[in-house]
Amino acid sequence: MADFVGAVDQGTTSTRFMIFDHSGNEVAKHQLEHEQIMPQPGWVEHDPTEIWERTRSVIGTALRKANLTAADLAALGITNQRETTVVWNRRTGRPYYNAIVWQDTRTDRIASALDRDGRGDVIREKAGLPPATYFSGGKIQWILENVDGVREAAEAGDAVFGNTDSWLLWNLTGGVGGGVHVTDPTNASRTMLMNLETLDWDDELLSFFDIPRRMLPEIRPSSNPHFYGLTLANGPLGGEVPLSGDLGDQQAATVGQVCFAPGEAKNTYGTGNFLLLNTGTELVRSKNGLLTTVCYQFGSERPVYALEGSIAVTGSAVQWLRDQLGIISGASQSEALARQVDDNGGVYFVPAFSGLFAPHWRSDARGAIVGLSRYNTNAHLARATLESICDHTRDVVEAMRQDSGVALDVLRVDGGVTANELCMEMQADILGVPVSKPMVAETTALGAAYAAGLATGFWQTTDELRQNWNEARRWQPQWSDEQRASGYAGWKKAVNRTLDWVDVD
After folding, report:
1. C-alpha dihedral (326, 330, 334, 335), degrees to nearest 10
2. Is 504 in contact with 106 (CB distance < 8 Å)?
3. Which of helix, strand or coil describes residue 229?
4. Could you tell me how far CA 460 lies from the centroid of its own chain?
5. Tens-of-pLDDT digits for all 505 residues of the chain?
6. CB-hemisphere CA count at 13 Å for 200?
7. CA–CA separation, 318 vs 320, rounded Å?
């Protein structure tokens, strides 16, 4: 029997391939970045062909590093940046346009129009999402309306859509030679096009965006005992492996953190911040600016839902300090610089570069640094940047408590920013609850591996997966209630300063 499971983790800035053993331990990995294309302000794109080439490369390199072959893999899972939209020709395999990334704001007029005439309320009820530039539906509409020949090709059945999971699944299973065009409910629930109750594409929602149904992939369970398909013998794995797991990246991290019980939550600190609270098989509709989304669906079991708070800018705020301001040379320096001061010196930084996501949903907002005086230094700005990550997370936690009635007793965390000890200390202080980090930091890829392995019997039950989880570090809150209340009041005041900056028709 094969002893390992592989996972492709196709993220916003890079693609990696990871191999795990039965205990959930990392055996090998390889990672490559891809280009961030920004043709004009607010536009963010990726080259789908480059992403596929990077995927091929990281799979082959990781296997060689571990001296393994396809025969050593019991299953293959995929996890991906969600909402990022690819439209390609199923006959030629060529994309019609660059992938439009989840951060892209070019569809603000489409989103605003949906809210003005009442269609937005239908989307909230059926899809669990507010009309926003974040999601795939408006991006598909933009491509259909602005790229020559796509509308006609879509009507003829030649132009097809997928988030990056579908694009990679199609290529891994044969592409123009018979690749499967599929997705799972976690990715489909990020489009504004899927009905949360039926787990199928909704004709009324499709009509709002004028999207032909035949463009869309078939929706299959996140952990699929019948497989999506087999990898090709002449593909990057060099053999046939069941492709049996597919999860959007934040749902994959929730599975990797083994948050299988209602009330369990995790927060992933990556390019953005994504906090998911498992609500079980109950569909909880948010009244406080959160998203209702599918957490996962394993085989023929009922889907498990989640409330999600999506924050657009987290790690990318630290990158901004490095790349645009030049006050640090690497992300790790942000902690050392911030530790030079004891507090933020009255400075608050709200990095609303692409507007504000949950729980505010204000596309008119833009970034602001407030409270500056001659006293302040670059160390105060570095500290304010880290605090912004934690304060915005508290915004989401407060909204979740109001929607679900659940008060967190611990927050499980993962992602690159968790390497910043000061930031995690501040997160515990600002929330007033312990913050817990697992031994295996790559929870996104691990979750995709778990979904794939459960489908093939490599792992039998979720209880088996729970036994793999071990804590690496826990941060306890140190602030007084007065400190916590004062700091958060300043943050909310700063958020208000960012609003109504951009005129949205």
Report:
1. -160
2. no
3. strand
4. 27
5. 689 999 999 999 899 999 999 999 999 999 999 999 999 988 999 999 999 999 999 999 999 999 999 999 999 999 999 999 999 999 999 999 999 999 898 998 999 899 888 899 999 999 999 898 989 999 999 999 999 999 999 999 999 999 999 999 999 999 999 999 999 999 999 999 999 999 999 999 999 999 999 999 999 999 988 889 998 888 888 889 999 999 999 999 999 999 999 989 899 998 888 899 999 998 988 889 899 999 999 999 999 999 999 888 888 888 899 988 888 888 788 999 999 999 999 999 999 988 888 899 888 899 999 999 999 999 999 999 999 999 999 999 999 999 988 888 889 999 888 999 999 999 999 999 999 999 888 899 999 999 999 999 999 999 999 999 999 999 999 999 999 999 999 999 999 999 989 876 6
6. 6
7. 5
Cβ-contact 12, 27 below 8 angstroms: no
Please give the C-alpha separations between residue 365 and each of 122, 156, 197, 355, 397, in angstroms, as whole numbers. 25, 40, 33, 5, 21
**What are the residue ranges of helices labelled H in 224-329?**
249-256, 315-320
Question: Tokens in use for 157?
Answer: 């059945």
Neighbouring CB atoms inside 10 A of 165's CB total 30
Q: How would you classify the pairing of strands 14-20 and 4-10?
A: antiparallel
Residue 73 tokens read as 């893999």
Strand 200-201 versus strand 194-195 pairing type: antiparallel
The first and second tokens of residue 246, run together, are: 């597919």
Quote the tokens at residue 192: 């504004």
Q: Are 228 and 451 in contact (CB under 8 A)?
A: no
The H helix count followed by the E strand count for the chain is: 16, 23
In this structure, the dihedral spanned by the alpha carbons of residues 298, 301, 302 and 305, taken in order and rounded to 10 degrees, is -20
CA–CA separation, 303 and 199 (whole Å)? 9
Alpha helices in 97-248 (DSSP H): 108-116, 119-127, 136-146, 150-155, 164-172, 185-188, 203-209
pTM of the model: 0.88
Place of tokens 């039950």: 461
- Find out whether the peptide bond into 236 is cis, omega within 30 degrees of 0: no
β partners of residue 369: 349
Beta bridge partners, 356, equal: 362
Is the Cβ–Cβ distance between 175 and 89 less than 8 Å? no
Cα(467)–Cα(439) distance, integer angstroms: 12
Instruction: Render the burial of 438-473: b for 16+ CB within 10 Å, e for the rest.
Output: bebbbbbbbbbbbbbbbbbebbeeeeebeebbeeee
Q: Please provide residue 385's backbone torsions phi and psi, each rounded to the nearest 5 degrees.
A: -65, -45
The label of the residue with tokens 């629930």 reads 189
Q: Which helix (H) or strand (E) holds 16?
A: strand 14-20
